[in-house]
Structure formats: C-alpha cells, structure tokens
C-alpha cells in the first residue's frame, strides 16, 4: 500500500467515525424537536413517524400557561448569572495572584484545586444541605447560587491559571516601572488579554448551572423557586410521561444555551484550546 493510499484510507476512516459520532448527537435532537410538535396521541402510536401530522404547537403553549415554566426559566437565569459573576471575580483574582506572586504553598493550592474536582457531586449534597440549613438558607435561590459558585470556582481558577501563564511578565514589569499599581495592571492590562479564557469559564459555569438538577431538587422545595431542570423532570410522573410536553420543554430550555454558544463559540473554543496548549 502506497503512502498516498494509506493517507486516503485513514482520512476516510476518520470521516466515517466523525459522521457516526455526529449522527449519535444530531438524531436524538431531531427526534426531540419532532416529538415536541406532535399531539399526545401521536407520541403513543405503534409506528412512530419523524414528521408530525398534524403539526401541533399545543405542547409549547403549555410551557407558559399550564406548567408556568416562565418563572422557572427566570429562576435558572438568576442563579446561573449570579454564579457566573461570582466565579469570574474570584477565579480571575486567584488566577492572577497564583501566576504573578511568589509565596509558600502555591503549588499545593494548585494541586488542591485539581484534587477538589475528583469528588463526585453526590458526595457533597448532604454536607451542603447541612451547612446551609444551619444558617437558614435552604429553599432559597441564594443557596443555589452559593452551591453553583462553590462547585465551579476551583475548575474556573485552574483554567484561568493556565491562561494567565500565557501573558508575559514583562508587561507587568513595564507597567510597574510607569507607576501602575497591581490592581491597575490586573484590570487594564492583563484582564483584557485573557478575555477568551474568561468567556470559556463563563460559558462553562453557565452550562453547568443551567443543566444542574441534583442540588436544585434537594435544596429548593418551593414551587415558585424551582429551576427549569426540576420542572422538566417533574413531567416524568409515576403513572404517565407526556412525551410531547417533555420534549417541548427540553427544546425551549435549550434555546438560551444554543444562542449563547453560537454567538460566543469563537471565544469559547479559543479559551479552551489556548489555555490548554499554551499553559
């Protein structure tokens, strides 16, 4: 087999594998959209069809009228945006400090950040609930903000540390010679250069919070404080699963994430690859 033939065969195999992987992701999404436009009797037909007939928007109308998912969307938005803001503030400051200052225990801190990500989330549910209940913060959106921030800030810091390392220290030294303070160097010089990394962290924390179910179902019991994931899972009842309503709610709740990713995918990819390769 010649070199050219071997390369062509390898390319064909790679494209076939990539196509199969893409289909594994795309087909369930298309089926979700198809089911969301069906009526309830259509979802239980013996021979399911891809194209709804008739085409129905009843499931989407129920999203706001029957199930009050509008309030749940707002709750998810509030908790996610607040946790994103907290994580960005602390991870940016920690990333700058860990890469710009020399102090004892710096390597141990970085190791601890990585070690903290090795514990499964289910191990932390009871400790979080115990601590928050003692200060009477359970059944509040603030409890979710605290938990989402605490569970994401370590990885956010670890990711931004890799990105802060790509910024030459000579920039700090030149600014310091001109009389700039550490905060001015951080805010006006270094921070604008790590915007792709900040965008990657923001989207990572937002996606994690938006799709999180376990903490929101345990820490919040009030109906008016439930998040969108808890509301969607509630459609899967013990006696019946309303597939068209479930798929419509899932599709509608995915729209904000899809829009954000399409708009900021350039920064997200640059942040993830840049910090990984250069760090």
TrEMBL record:
The chain crosses the membrane at residues 12-33, 72-98, 110-130, 142-164, 185-207, 246-264. Pfam families: BPD_transp_1. InterPro entries: BP-dep_ABC_trans_perm, MetI-like, MetI-like_sf. One of its GO terms (cellular component) is plasma membrane. Keywords: Cell membrane, Membrane, Sugar transport, Transmembrane, Transmembrane helix, Transport. It is found in: Cell membrane. The keyword DNA-binding does not apply. GO terms for biological process: transmembrane transport. The keyword Phosphoprotein does not apply. It is a multi-pass membrane protein. Residues 73-264 form the ABC transmembrane type-1 domain. PANTHER family: MALTOSE TRANSPORT SYSTEM PERMEASE-RELATED (PTHR32243), MALTOSE_MALTODEXTRIN TRANSPORT SYSTEM PERMEASE PROTEIN MALG (PTHR32243:SF50). Belongs to the binding-protein-dependent transport system permease family. MalFG subfamily. Part of the ABC transporter complex MalEFGK involved in maltose/maltodextrin import. Probably responsible for the translocation of the substrate across the membrane. This is Maltose/maltodextrin transport system permease protein MalG. It comes from Candidatus Ornithospirochaeta stercoravium. The lineage of its organism: Bacteria, Pseudomonadati, Spirochaetota, Spirochaetia, Spirochaetales.
């Amino acid at each position: 087999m010649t070199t050219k033939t071997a390369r062509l065969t390898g390319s064909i195999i790679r494209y076939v594998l990539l196509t199969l992987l893409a289909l594994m992701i795309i087909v369930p999404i298309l089926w979700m959209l198809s089911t969301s436009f069906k009526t309830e009797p259509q979802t239980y037909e013996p021979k399911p069809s891809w194209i709804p007939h008739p085409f129905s928007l009843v499931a989407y109308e129920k999203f706001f009228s029957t199930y009050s998912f509008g309030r749940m969307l707002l709750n998810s938005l509030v908790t996610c945006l607040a946790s994103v803001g907290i994580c960005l503030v602390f991870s940016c400051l920690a990333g700058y400090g860990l890469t710009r200052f020399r102090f004892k225990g710096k390597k141990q801190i970085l190791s601890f950040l990585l070690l903290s990500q090795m514990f499964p989330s289910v191990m932390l549910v009871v400790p979080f609930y115990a601590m928050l209940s003692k200060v009477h913060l359970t059944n509040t959106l603030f409890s979710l903000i605290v938990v989402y921030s605490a569970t994401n800030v370590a990885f956010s810091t670890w990711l931004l540390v890799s990105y802060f390392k790509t910024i030459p220290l000579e920039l700090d030294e030149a600014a310091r010679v001109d009389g700039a303070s550490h905060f001015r160097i951080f805010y006006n010089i270094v921070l604008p250069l790590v915007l792709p990394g900040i965008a990657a962290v923001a989207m990572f924390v937002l996606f994690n919070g938006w799709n999180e179910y376990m903490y929101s179902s345990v820490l919040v019991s009030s109906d008016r404080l439930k998040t969108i994931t808890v509301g969607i899972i509630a459609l899967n009842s013990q006696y019946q699963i309303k597939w068209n309503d479930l798929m419509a709610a899932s599709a509608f709740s995915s729209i904000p994430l899809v829009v954000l990713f399409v708009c900021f995918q350039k920064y997200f990819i640059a942040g993830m690859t840049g910090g990984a390769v250069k760090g």
